[in-house]
Specification:
Elements: H1 12-19, H2 27-32, E1 35-39, E2 50-57, E3 64-68, E4 75-80, E5 85-90, E6 97-101, E7 106-112, E8 132-134, H3 142-151, H4 155-169, H5 174-188, H6 195-202, H7 206-216, H8 221-239, H9 244-250, H10 256-267, E9 289-292
Parallel strand pairs: 6-9
Antiparallel strand pairs: 1-2, 2-7, 3-6, 4-5, 4-7, 5-8
Helix pairs in contact: 5-7, 8-9
Length: about 290
Amino acid sequence: MRDYSFQSKFTEDEIEKTLNHYLSLQPGFDANLTFYREYQPKDKIVSKYVAYFYELHTSASKNVSIPIIPDGCMDLVFVKTDDEYKSYIIGTALKFSGLLAVKNRYVIGIRFHPGALRMFFDVDPFQILAQQIPLGAHMVKNRDINEQLYRAESSQERVTILENLLISNIKRHEKYKIVQYCVQRMVESKGLVNLNTLSDEVHYSTRYLNHLFRDYVGLSPKYLDEIIKLQTTIFLIANSSDSLCDIAFHSGFCDQSHMNRLLKKFLGGPSSTLLNQGFFTADHHVLNNIYIF
């Protein structure tokens, strides 16, 4: 389990190590849920494509609108109702949005690295951006998995069921390796590597790379690059003692004003608003709920 909770300061070495990996932070989960936990994949192959498994419990007494920030990822979620699980594919959010967490629900999910869902399921990410669709149409044995989850007696047993599901559905996609390489380069460069450089490194045209990102991620490389900078900024504000000016530099911006413009585009306000401890709480915003668990 990882802890990226807001305002839990990391050491400089911990920060540097974390920033070399793709971030898919959702601080609204920790801020608004009665229980939230993440689990790392055990299978080495699955770990190449899955950021983490997670489980959560919603409020027992009321529905809550949880702030969701763009992270470039897609999820599979399995929602336990009174007597069954219902499963959904979650398309990546394009802007600051809401998840309506229905009271008294248990949810277990899989968060995939950008583009990785297509390694397992034949889904067009572009067609389901900022949408939630039933999984059943994309997986023949969907009912079997839901029944297995319902019979499982522990969190670890449910995670193992989902990991086995992925192992049995993995497909061969050579093109995804190109996307995977480009995304990692974008992360390591803090968003400073441009598309022309990536084109030279992988020996494919910029037009072809744009096409690949649309097919696998659902976003253009430029848009995903902005999301990487957004996620880096949020992580550093939460976990670094640096000034906002220094955070802008370490997040790949030329100055703080450029960082503020990006944050306003995605979150509706400048970097200083993120210093508010209640920014990711449900009561701080009136959100458009695009997901319902």
